[in-house]
Amino acid sequence: MKRILLAEDEEVLRMLVVDSLEDEGYEIDEAADGIEAFGLLQTNDYDLVLLDYMMPGMSGLELIEKVRAIEKFKGLEILMLTAKSQKSDQEKVISAGANYFLAKPFSPSELVAIVGEILSE
């Protein structure tokens, strides 16, 4: 079973994402902010990380930069979920080290499809 870490501070969106992905057979760990997510990354192995851009404590962008500085996370797949959908924001996210970008709002089926593509590679 593929294991995913979801870091999202909006509880309702977190529940929607978890329900959608668990229905597809993925195991999901949840974090409400970047600091909690970083702690989970230190103690668990994940196939994919879904990160919100704007979170309290440590933003998704800061978390990506911190994670990419650690050798064991170089190959970790990261999908940024964000309402910041300007071209310049996308470029910032990708240059920080995210592999993929999904603009909010997105449909559960859109998320399931992109996660399926990422994890089938």
UniProtKB/TrEMBL annotation:
<feature type="modified residue" description="4-aspartylphosphate">
    <location>
        <position position="52"/>
    </location>
</feature>
<protein>
    <submittedName>
        <fullName>Response regulator</fullName>
    </submittedName>
</protein>
<dbReference type="InterPro" id="IPR011006">
    <property type="entry name" value="CheY-like_superfamily"/>
</dbReference>
<dbReference type="GO" id="GO:0000160">
    <property type="term" value="P:phosphorelay signal transduction system"/>
</dbReference>
<keyword id="KW-0902">Two-component regulatory system</keyword>
<keyword id="KW-0238">DNA-binding</keyword>
<keyword id="KW-0597">Phosphoprotein</keyword>
<dbReference type="Pfam" id="PF00072">
    <property type="entry name" value="Response_reg"/>
</dbReference>
<keyword id="KW-0805">Transcription regulation</keyword>
<feature type="domain" description="Response regulatory">
    <location>
        <begin position="3"/>
        <end position="119"/>
    </location>
</feature>
<dbReference type="GO" id="GO:0003677">
    <property type="term" value="F:DNA binding"/>
</dbReference>
<dbReference type="InterPro" id="IPR001789">
    <property type="entry name" value="Sig_transdc_resp-reg_receiver"/>
</dbReference>
<dbReference type="InterPro" id="IPR050595">
    <property type="entry name" value="Bact_response_regulator"/>
</dbReference>
<keyword id="KW-0804">Transcription</keyword>
